[in-house]
Amino acid sequence: MKKFLSLFVALAMVLSLFAGVGTRTAKAAATLTATPSGATFTGGADIVTGVHGLATVTLLSPLTVTIDTPAVETFSGMNVSIQTRTAAALAATTDTGFAGTDGSTAVVIVSSTANVFVGDVIRTDAATNGLFTVASIIDATTMSIAITHHAVGTITGIFLDATEPNYAATTADPNFKATGSQTVTLSSPTGNLHVGDQVKVTMVNTPAVSATASVAIGGTVTAGNVVTVTVGATAYPYTALSTSTTATIASALAALINGTTYGATATGSVTTITVTTPGVAGNATTLAATVAEGVTTALTIHTLGGLTSPAYVENSKTIQLVAVDRTGAVVSPVWTFSGSSVTGVAGGLVTAHAAATGPSVVAATLSGISAQFVVNVIPAGTITSLAVTPATANLAVSSSGMQQFSAIAVSAAYSALDYTTQVTWLDDLGVASVSNAAPTQGLLTYSSAESGHVYALFIPSGFFGMATVTIGTAGSVSPTTGAVTSVTSTGATLHGTTGTSAPTASFFQYGTTSVGPWTLATADPAVATANTAFTATLTGLTAGQLYYFRAANTVAGVDTFGSVLTFTTTAGSVSPTTGAVTSVTSTGATLNGTTGTPAPTESFFQYGTTSVGPWTKVTASPAVITANTAFTATLTGLTAGQPYYVRAANTVAGVDTFGSVLTFTTTAAAAAVKIVIVLTIRINIVTVDGKATSIDAAPEIVNGSTFVPIRFIAETFGSTVEWLPESRGITLGHPTIGLQIGKATVVINGNTIALEAAPYIKNSRTMVPLRVISESFGGDVVWDATVGTITISYMLP
Question: How many CA atoms within 13 Å lie on the side-chain side of 699?
Answer without folding.
Answer: 24
